[in-house]
Amino acid sequence: MCHVIVTCRSMLWTLLSIVVAFAELIAFMSADWLIGKAHPGSFQDTDSRRAGSMDPYRPTLGIYGRCTRIEHLQSSMPDTSCGPYADNFSEIASGFWQATAIFLAVGILILCAVAFVSVFTMCVQSIMKKSIFNVCGLLQGIAGLFLILGLILYPAGWGCQKAISYCGPYASAYKLGDCSLGWAFYTAIGGTVLTFICAVFSAQAEIATSSDKVQEEIEEGKSLICLL
């Protein structure tokens, strides 16, 4: 039977590791990386626009997905359709975005593995005399590097034909044209910053868990320890 060792630092590191993994995964899957130029409603919406209830629609474009508005012949209320525009990896709009997808996917896979392992650090702190906190921190640092590479390459693909169709003819590599950045891109950046914070914080979690005070509590037979 293992001793469940919980310190505030290790618990915070575990929670942050889980949050970062989910944030990066959600951002990667989202279509809200680019917000395209505004499209007015169709001729069927003339009365609604005159009444001021119909705002121009701005489609969104992700790494492999998109959201567009679908007009109905029998209805004045359009629907928004979201889904992948690429049926396979080779159909992703830009080679830079393909590289972005690879780097982000590898980074997210590492983060998800670390998040899974971090739950068990309350019970097991080392494997083969190696601190799990230190190993996970190193993996998070590596994942952060993959994420940075993906985010750097992503704007280089803004000159692809798919992006130009959303952002206008002035869009090019590292130039948005008529587009703006969506929440998914900012979430990916924020998650990358938190990834490196987690990597640093893992060392603090290791120090707190292996402190003399915690070891004394273990020797006294306590199974649940919560210390700063």
TrEMBL record:
The keyword Membrane applies. Belongs to the LHFP family. This is LHFPL tetraspan subfamily member 2 protein. Its main location: membrane. Keywords: Fertilization, Membrane, Transmembrane, Transmembrane helix. The gene is LHFPL2. The keyword Membrane applies. InterPro entries: LHFPL. One of its GO terms (biological process) is development of primary male sexual characteristics. The chain crosses the membrane at residues 12-35, 96-120, 132-154, 183-203. It is a multi-pass membrane protein. It is found in: Membrane. It comes from the Eukaryota. One of its GO terms (cellular component) is membrane. It comes from Notechis scutatus.
